[in-house]
């Protein structure tokens, strides 16, 4: 069997080495005589795996004791609501909108707390970032919410603003583990797993411990981050298979040289693809401000939209899948998460050049 190069935005490709290990352990995990999906999450084998996975994640990201690490469920969309339920009780929150998912997060948060739009690039069609000097921040806000990378529009923040004493909350679903990160700059980070981490069904949450005390007593236990932290993410049955595969990804990342090595690869992959788009003589175009271009998600349009279906059919036949753009923006999109190799990007670049020669 020949595996395709999968450019899907999520659920996304996983490293071949991880999938091969999952295959080999599917019927007998860790000598238990059963699959990891069949053993108790409160048994010694699973608890040991869970503890090791947290240690590996802490070492990869340099997470200190002042932040708790939680392995939760629900997808990022659930936590659009659960975050303000836990840390915005009785206060408003500032939201910076740089694309579809930031807007969605603000809309859902407004159902449980007062939301202020501190800045937005909607007027420009989310092709860039609002200037930092234009952010209207409230120093009394419960937090400032950002979406550092917008998967649909391909817009990325490459730096953090100064928010003073107001904690930054970040939806890092599409960038967590793609490069080193200064965790101390964040009050709370959440990320769904199905991009750079593992299979869908799992959400990683990294939260400053002092923020855990903000949960109101009226909030049911199952929604309280402090209760999940106290039970080491085992308050209820977790997404055991997704957690296990994510643990394998953490070990794989360490074997690759850690997040600094991944950052170099990811930046090189993105640079190669943007160079192909910019050097196509207008056959392909990316409409994002170059200063805000994403390393992870590269949307692009063909000069003739009538060729879109042909491009997708021919690229799939060439073993390049998952390239259809999101319905919000159309066109194409190549997602370059950690599991995508430079060889895969090279194949895409070569295909794009050949397609332009034949259809230009």
From TrEMBL:
Q: How is the cofactor bound?
A: Binds 1 pyridoxal phosphate per subunit.
PTM annotation (N6-(pyridoxal phosphate)lysine): residues: 195
Q: Where in the cell is it found?
A: Cytoplasm
- Keyword Amino-acid biosynthesis, does the record have it? yes
Q: What EC number(s) does this enzyme carry?
A: 2.6.1.52
Family from the record: Belongs to the class-V pyridoxal-phosphate-dependent aminotransferase family. SerC subfamily.
* Protein known as: Phosphoserine aminotransferase
